[in-house]
Amino acid sequence: MSAEALEEFEEAGGGDAAQAAQPNAHRPQSLLFSFFGGVVRGRDRSPIPTSVFLRLLGELGVAEAAARATLARMTRKGLLERSQVGRTAHYRLTPETDALVRKAADRVTASAPFEHPDGQWTLLSYSVPESRRDLRHRVRATLTWAGFGGLRDGLWIAPGTVDVGAVLADAGLAEVAGLAEWFAASPSPGVRVDQLIRRAWPVDRIRESHERFIRTWWSEPPGQDPLAQVTLLGADWLRLLRSDPGLPARFLSPDWPAAQSAAVYRRCYESLLPAAHRRLDLELGRTVLG
């Protein structure tokens, strides 16, 4: 899959000026990735009419003009396929983007997404020429999703054992493999792993992200239909997964909230999904049983 597609997927959870003013807001593209990954994934790939996206995004506070612009932009970028049925435009993920969403689902649906074998780490060193800032940006986005944090410029660390070659290849960044070295490692006696973790990741902000997620979803937010709720849940969950690579809880505070976040997500998702599927089937004119 292309680096451009991966970059679009990574940046779907990223921020911009609007998000700086509204830190809990999601870009429309992030919401659409959540919709496809959380609701559509695993079902048939029939194109979905524009009206479904407009209503869903409108329910989540996205204006119609912004929703239409997002669909057009994602189509231009090769993330969506557009087809026409009469006067109505329909959209679905391109095969490449569909593969990307399915691969991300391995982490999204993991029973313990914040846990790794104890004592295992991956160290990565790479050097990309300063003139290739576009490439540097894509590499950073790829490494962040793969769980890496930066110790210093060009030196990254991730909990667990990461197949870096596969990560780079899947992102269309095979050329970077020739500019990098990586190896599995374990800390030597006396190394303060807790301090190392705090150098590589903003631990306090990660904790706040977990606590915000738990507060929001401890009780399912009222006033939204299940299709909108499960889409928002997925977008919040992707953002949290992107912020916490699975930091070892034993080096953090005794009440580190990662396990509670995972339990809250599973409970809410399993509760909302059947009703979300029924709502989508109704909107698509399919027969709904039960």
Automatic annotation (TrEMBL):
GO terms for biological process: DNA-templated transcription. Pfam families: PaaX, PaaX_C, PaaX_M. Residues 116-175 form the Transcriptional repressor PaaX-like central Cas2-like domain. This is Transcriptional regulator, PaaX family. Residues 1-13 have a biased composition (Acidic residues). It comes from Geodermatophilus amargosae. Residues 201-279 form the Transcriptional repressor PaaX-like C-terminal domain. Residues 27-94 form the Transcriptional repressor PaaX-like N-terminal domain. Residues 1-25 are annotated as: Disordered. Signal peptide: none annotated.
